[in-house]
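FAQ: What does the model actually see?

It sees only this:
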Amino acid sequence: MKTLKSFLSSLLILSALACGELSAEIYKWVDENGRVHFSDRKAKGQTVEVVPIKVNSLKTVTYSSASPRSSVADSSESAQNAFSTKKNVIMYSASWCGYCAKARKYFSKNNIAFTEYDIEKSRKAREEYDALGAKGVPVILVGRKRMNGFSVGGFEQIYR
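And it is asked to produce this:
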């Protein structure tokens, strides 16, 4: 029965998306162990933060390459050169993200210089992240190569 409910809910959401714009609310809260949770339902007995979501349409996203930051960023020389060298590493992150922390630790341990943009603390970073069509964090860019999430093996492939 639960599977049927889940299927019908998914079908309803997809129908709404196909018809046009859909607005939704996501609730964010931190439990007593310090873990951050997101849900489409309010947590009982928790102070929740509403994270509004607005979906305009379904888009196909290609993860093999990334658009240059300079298309969204200012036209300063550093922004223009953001993709000029293969070893330039950029990470779009969030403070609560465990994979972002793992990437930070790996970069530090291996003396890999990187630039980090927190998409929750910087409006400009969020705009750049959105321009990439990203859906989760971290998003790691090395030149024109892109990685969603983080794993040592995956990063080493795009960093070569």
